Amino acid sequence: MGLSTACAAEPLPRFGLVLHGGAGVIERQNMPPGREAEIRQQLNEALAAGYQVLAKGGPAIEAVAATINVLEDSPLFNAGRGAVLNAAGQCELDASIMNGNTLAAGAVAGLQHIKNPINLARDVMTKSSHVMLIGEGAEQFAQSLGYALVPNEYFQTEFRREQLKKIQAREKAAQTGVRHTSDYFDRQSRWGTVGCAALDQQGNLAAGTSTGGMANKKYGRVGDAPIIGAGNYANNATCALSATGDGEYFMRLNVAHDVSAQMEYRGVPLHTAAAASIAKVGKLGGTGGVVAIDRQGNIAMEFNSLGMYRAAHLAGQPAFVAIYRDEKIPENFSR
Ligand code: ASP
């Protein structure tokens, strides 16, 4: 038998990636017309950017960064451009990235002028001796590497300004006892973080998460996204995972590491571990979800909210993009 025939008969290696664009009160009846198609298209584009890296044999960490760059540049998600505003009307961005092969990690928090926070997180990982840099110090480090600083207005969109106004008006009204019905702005106020987990052809895992945090947050508030083990984790021995949701709960439960630890110490499958961790979040009163991939290429997309923007592409399978709770993950994603 010729070499080419032998190769053709072999099953495709199970590399792939999974991403999220935030979890929350996402329901068909509240989706503004046209918005759904736009979101699905952006999720597809981000998925393709990462998948291309993997298909060419590139490293998982690069696929994660490529995917997240697309989502950060899109005004539709709460990361990079289009991030939520803090109580002072500014965008403050957090991100982290982790390499499951080496357990190297990089994180940034409270950025106000870096266009793609995930890229700086990666540079903290590879070009500094630290894991996390924050605020002005992080931006100084970025400048020393040649990053251009962008004005904070670059991140701010009309949609987010309106959102902040409504949240603050509601907050004020609540203090005076007036109740308002919630609308699309309110309902979208907390979510939209982006994240990605990937498995490359060499069997290496990586994960990244990037966010503007929570709308109307206090200046200086940092959530789970840049906390290694809370909103992000990758370990070749177990899985790569990115979280989204109420950061304060994910931090207290160390969700990302909790999933990995269950797999490592108790040998439970990825999907079971992810479901157990999200159940803990719910029990404590939090909402959100995780996307994850393990070393065999099993995928989990677990959430306790009404919806989660999510997508995945495994080698040899069609890409999967979903928004609402009733869109079921293909069975062969989890073997
Ligand atoms: N987890 C993020 C945070 O708390 C928010 C989100 O996922 O939407 O900063």
**Which ligands appear in the coordinates?**
aspartic acid
- As laid out across the biggest beta sheet, the strand order is 4-3-2-6-5-1-11-12
The helical percent reads: 25-40%
Number of helices in the DSSP assignment:
10
Order of helices and strands: HEHHEEHEHHHEEEEHHHEEEE
Structure, explained:
The protein has 335 residues and is α+β, with helices and mostly antiparallel strands. The protein has a single domain (22-330), classed as (Glycosyl)asparaginase (Glutamine Phosphoribosylpyrophosphate, subunit 1, domain 1), CATH 3.60.20. The protein has helices at residues 3-9, 35-55, 60-73, 117-127, 135-144, 158-175, 184-187, 247-253, 255-266, 270-284; strands at residues 16-24, 93-99, 104-111, 132-134, 194-199, 205-211, 232-234, 239-245, 288-294, 299-303, 307-314, 320-324. An eight-stranded mixed sheet has the order 4-3-2-6-5-1-11-12. Strands 7-8-9-10 form a four-stranded antiparallel sheet. Helix 4 (117-127) links the parallel strand 3 and strand 4. Helix 2 packs antiparallel against helix 3 (60-73) and helix 9 packs across helix 10 (270-284). The radius of gyration is 19 Å and the shape is globular. It starts with a helix and ends in an 11-residue tail after the last strand. The model is unreliable at 1-7 (pLDDT under 50). The chain binds aspartic acid. Residues 22, 78, 190-193, 211, 213-214, 223-225, 231, 244-245, 247 line the site of aspartic acid.
